[in-house]
Each structure stands twice: as C-alpha cells, then as structure tokens.
C-alpha cells in the first residue's frame, strides 16, 4: 500500500510507543443498503492499512437504526468484501453486540451528570440548538437530578413512552462553536423489532455515541472515517474522556476524503429510491454503482482495487472523473479477457465460392499461446456498419467492388448487393481469395480493412445489453429528472461465435472491435446474455492531458 498521510500518522504513533498490540482498524458499514464504489475505497483503505502494518481489521455492522436495516444487506456486505479479496477472519461484530454495554455507559454518564433525559420534541431540540453564528439555548430539562434522569432513562428502556416522547442527551456546552457539541442526542426511543435482538430493546443509541464506544470496546487503534465526521471528532474524544478511557491506548479518529465520481450517485437514500421506485432492476442492476451492480456488469475486483490505489488518500474532497475507473477496468481486462467475435447488428454475407465447413485457428489472447477453433462456412454475418454502399474515399471496410480481410480468415471481395422491395440492403454476395488466409500464397497481400464475423450456421443468438451512465448530472437538484433514458439499450438478436456456449456467469470477453463484455446471470445455454462492461476506447489519457 502506498504511503499516505494516514500511514504517516500510524508510523508516528508506533514510533511513540502507542498501541503496543499493533494496528487494529475496522470497516463499520450500516446494513441499510448495498455497498457502492465509494465504500470500496474505505474497504481497501481499512483492510489495506491493517495488512500493510501486520495488523487486524474488523468488520462491524453499525446496526443501531432498525427502521432501515435488513439481513439482506448484512449478507450482501459480506459477499462484497470477500469479492474484493478481503477477510475479517473471526472478527465480525455488530454494534448490537454491545447494546447492554452502551446502555451501561449511558447510565454512567447520567451518574456523572454528563447526560440527561429531555422531553422536548425533535423540532424544539432543533430550534434550541442555535446556528453557526448564534449559541444554542439550554433545554428546560437540562438540570434534572441524577435520580430523576436515571428513573426516566430506565422507564424509556422499559417501553413506557412513545417514540419521540423523550431522548437522552449528552450534557456538554450549548454555547460551543461546534454544533455537534451542543448537547447531542445519544439515545432515542424506537418501538421497532431489531433484526438481531428482536423486541429486547426499544431504545437505540445514536451513531455518534455507539461508534466511538464500539471502537474502544474492540481496541481499535485507528478509526478511519470519511471527512464529514471531522466535525464529530470532538464529541468522539469527549465521550472517551468522560468515560475515562486511557488516552494512550484508545482509538484515534482520522478523516479522509470520500470518493465522489462524475456521473455517479453514491447516496444510499437515492440508490434506495431508484430500487424501490423501479427505475432500475434492483440493487445489482449493472447501471448501479453498487459493488454487486459493478460485479454483475463485469468489473473485476483487481480493477477496483487498482483504481482505489491510483486515486490515493486525500484530506480534501474532490470529484474524480469516472473515466479513471473505466481505465482501470479496461487495463485489467485488456490483460486477462479472452478475445472472441460477436456481431451485434448482423448483415448476411454469402461467400459464393465457398463449399462445406472449415475450422480455422484463432488466438484467445494476443499475449498467450492458447488457441480455439472457429467454424468458417458459406454464409456468415458481419456488422451492418462494416458495409456502405455509397462509401466515402476513406471508408476502409466493405463496399461494392471493395475488399476487406475477415479476422482469422480470408480476404473477401463484394460482388453483389441484394436489396428488398424497399431498397434496404439485406444480403451481400462476395467471393474469397482462397490463398489469402494464414499460410496461403497471398496471405501477406495488403488490404486496408479487417473486420470481424461469425459463421451463420454455427453462431449463437444472444442478448446484448449496452450500458451507459445511469445519470447525466449526479449533482442535479432533481436527480430523477437527470436520469439517462438511454442508460440501457438491449440488442435481442446479436450473433456470437459458438465458443461461448455454456460460459459461466461473469466470464469476461473482449468482443473484437466492439468492447468488453461479461456473461450475465440471466444467461442460458440456449440464449446467452452479455453485459457491456466498457468500450475499447480509453478516454482517461484525454482527461489527463487536460490537467
């Protein structure tokens, strides 16, 4: 892992003798949705820092809000982390594991006159909080006695009060310039069953309360958070001070810039809306920036980890061009994806001087020695765009009287154009130069164009799904209005060479001259389905040249 400012902090702590048990990080997702590409950066960073320093990284689910959590999300998060190549061994925890301890810590704060039960409504608390330029106003319930607070808090726990009737607040400073220190709410009432604890609890800790204490309970050394938690760090430290955690052996919170990508939504709330309102086919729709969506589309874990390494770890938020992620994916697939031929918009070609079937040899990858056999016969399909009847001078593909080379095969010449009653081109009649294939007498004869093809008799009919950016402007006020109506184009009758028959889901190929594609989960032996991962053209070099 490359050196970054967080690693520098870790090096400093270790030099100063802190954390004698070593580096211990954690990845603490909320199980209220699927992980997205922004989480990949945090996963790679937290697990990567632990690996680089010979330490440990926990997986801890922040399951403190049962109104939005589900076991489905817990399972998907584990799958995504393992897919990226990381493992937490036996260190999978939940904030709910500590509910009793967290409750006891809250009681201790009450006893130390550092927390109180507030009967104010959420709106009243919000109004009393003040603004960035005006101090807050103390709640009329702020000076309740310890005994009264303990009694009310225990009755909250016992379920005597309705949701929103009371909260427990930390007692800090309503005049603090940091609004997060103005008596933040640390417990609220929610009569909702929890996916792990059932109906055992009806009060739940707030994230800002559960997070630092969970870190401390697990003996986390470095609590790495995204930048929006920087303003919450004073409360993190205040809480650990208030409960007498050893300053020399307690978590150190460090913030880094989150990942924001152009043309990409990374708000869980918005992603959930897309799923629940049917704008996409689910959390794993290949247009989604979720890790399950990227996996289904055909992105590789290696590419995502290389991308996270390439963008580095910054202290200030910035917007990363999605072309950089696509470059990482393309770079990995270029090295590893087998090459095949597929025709997305078929035009039939009859080779009038061909009889029977010939098996031709094709390389699977230009940098490997393995090959496959592809059938060649009298009737083939080529891309409709590879023929033009009234071609301009610099059109180097097929045209009447013109020649092109068929990839892995022969040079062909277009002799006749067949049209239907409406004048549409429906078929070409061509002849091959029989000596022009590899090893033939005219194999070295030069023609300016080489095109791909498939043998009509042996080709497999496939569905091909072409994906574009789901959203045109992720920063738009109305992101639904900014959805791209052309984010998915389905081609029902593409033709692919027979070597793909039976390929497992997520098998990745380069369709020659077209792009990189992956077999979708919907594929069958009778009709494979392919998702376009990325095109062949890499725009990242253009992005770099502008900077």
Poorly predicted regions are: none
Helix content: 25-40%
Q: How is the main sheet built? A: 7 strands, mixed
Bin the strand percentage.
15-25%
Mean pLDDT: 95
Work out the count of structural domains: 3
Q: Do you know the CATH topology of the largest domain?
A: Rossmann fold
Assembly classification: single chain
CATH superfamily of the largest domain: HUPs
- Count of DSSP strands: 27
SS-based structural class?
Answer: alpha/beta
Number of continuous helical runs: 13
Cα separation of the termini? 25 Å
Instruction: Report the radius of gyration as a whole number of Å.
Output: 31 Å
Can you describe this structure?
The chain has 547 residues and is an alpha/beta fold. It folds into three domains: 20-256, HUPs (Rossmann fold); 342-452, Ribosomal Protein L25, Chain P (Beta Barrel), CATH 2.40.240.10; 463-546, Ribosomal Protein L25, Chain P. The protein has 13 helices and 27 strands. The chain has helices at 5-15, 37-52, 71-83, 99-111, 122-128, 146-158, 207-217, 233-242, 268-276, 291-297, 301-311, 322-336, 540-546, and strands at residues 24-27, 56-61, 92-94, 115-118, 167-170, 185-189, 203-205, 222-226, 252-256, 260-261, 319-320, 338-340, 342-343, 346-351, 358-363, 371-376, 379-383, 403-406, 411-419, 425-433, 450-451, 454-455, 460-467, 488-496, 508-511, 515-519, 529-535. Helix 7 crosses helix 8. The radius of gyration is 31 Å and the shape is elongated. The mean pLDDT is 95.
């Amino acid at each position: 892992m490359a050196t970054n400012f967080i690693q520098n902090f870790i090096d400093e702590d270790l030099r100063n003798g802190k954390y004698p048990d070593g580096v211990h990080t954690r990845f603490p997702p909320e199980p209220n949705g699927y992980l997205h590409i922004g989480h990949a950066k945090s996963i790679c960073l937290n697990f990567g820092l632990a690996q680089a320093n010979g330490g440990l990284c926990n997986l801890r689910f922040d399951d403190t809000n049962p109104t939005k959590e589900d076991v489905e999300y817990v399972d998907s998060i584990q799958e995504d982390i393992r897919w990226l190549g990381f493992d937490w061994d036996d260190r999978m925890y939940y904030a709910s594991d500590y509910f009793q301890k967290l409750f006891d810590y809250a009681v201790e704060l009450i006893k130390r006159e550092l927390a109180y039960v507030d009967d104010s409504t959420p709106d009243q608390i919000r109004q009393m909080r003040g603004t960035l330029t005006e101090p807050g106003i103390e709640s009329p319930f702020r000076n309740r006695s310890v005994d009264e607070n303990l009694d009310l808090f225990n009755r909250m726990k016992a379920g005597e009060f309705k949701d929103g009737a009371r909260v427990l607040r930390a007692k800090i400073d309503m005049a603090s310039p940091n609004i997060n220190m103005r008596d933040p709410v640390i417990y609220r009432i929610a009569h909702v069953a929890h996916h792990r604890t059932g109906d055992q609890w009806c009060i739940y800790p707030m994230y800002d309360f559960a997070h630092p204490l969970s870190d401390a309970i697990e003996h986390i050394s470095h609590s790495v958070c995204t930048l929006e938690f920087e303003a919450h760090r004073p409360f993190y430290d205040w809480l650990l001070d208030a409960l007498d955690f050893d300053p020399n052996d307690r978590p150190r919170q460090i913030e880094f810039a989150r990942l924001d990508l152009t043309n990409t939504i990374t708000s869980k709330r918005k992603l959930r809306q897309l799923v629940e309102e049917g704008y996409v086919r689910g959390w794993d729709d290949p247009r989604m920036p979720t890790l399950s969506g990227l996996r289904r589309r055909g992105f590789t874990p290696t590419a995502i980890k290389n991308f996270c390494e390439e963008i580095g770890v910054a202290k200030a938020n910035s917007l990363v061009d999605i072309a950089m992620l696509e470059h990482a994916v393309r770079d990995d697939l270029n090295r590893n994806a087998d090459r095949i031929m597929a025709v997305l918009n078929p035009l039939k070609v009859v080779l009038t001087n061909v009889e029977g079937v010939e098996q031709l040899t094709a390389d699977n990858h230009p940098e490997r020695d393995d090959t496959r056999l592809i059938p060649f016969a009298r009737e083939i399909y080529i891309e409709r765009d590879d023929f033009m009847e009234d071609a301009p001078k610099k059109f180097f593909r097929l045209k009447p009287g013109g020649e092109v080379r068929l990839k892995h095969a022969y040079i062909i010449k277009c002799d006749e154009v067949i049209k239907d009653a409406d004048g549409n081109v429906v078929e070409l009649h061509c002849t091959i130069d029989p000596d022009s294939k590899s090893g033939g007498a005219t194999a070295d004869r030069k023609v300016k164009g080489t095109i791909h093809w498939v043998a009509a008799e042996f080709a497999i009919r496939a569905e091909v799904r072409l994906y574009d950016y789901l959203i045109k402007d992720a920063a738009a006020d109305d992101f639904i209005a900014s959805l791209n109506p052309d984010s998915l184009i389905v081609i029902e009758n593409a033709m692919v060479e027979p070597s793909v028959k039976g390929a497992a889901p997520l098998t990745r190929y380069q369709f020659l001259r077209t792009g990189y594609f992956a077999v979708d989960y919907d594929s069958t032996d009778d009709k494979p389905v392919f998702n376009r991962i990325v095109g062949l053209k890499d725009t990242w070099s253009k992005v770099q040249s502008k900077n």
